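User: Predict the structure for this protein chain, please.
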Amino acid sequence: MMEIKSIEKPDDRRDFPRGHVEVVNMSGLVFGKATFEPGWRWTESIRDIAGTELCDVHHNGYVVDGRMRIRMSDGAEQEVGPGDVFVVSPGHDAWVLGDEPCIVLDFAGNIGDYAKAR
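Assistant: Here is the predicted structure, written as structure tokens:
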């Protein structure tokens, strides 16, 4: 089996305040490319769309550009930047640091649910 798709022609694109996510659905993989503009914060841009207090999506990600801070519900915080690979469990807030967009590639299966109204 071989399956190839381009993120330049996503199956779905969701726009939200200060950003968007593009998603391709493949056999055994849901892949997302998220662009978060300066000033983006999950609790300000996505919370009302998701209908949850914190992000409840599991992320397996890779940061292409920009920087982001992630705070877990227990208060633990980490910063991610270009070249960082990360795994983040549901129950977190996140925000862009600095004045450049943060571009994240996400390989988690439920990125297809990200920024979808419930």
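Strands lie at 12-16, 19-26, 29-36, 59-65, 67-72, 77-80, 85-88, 92-97, 102-106.
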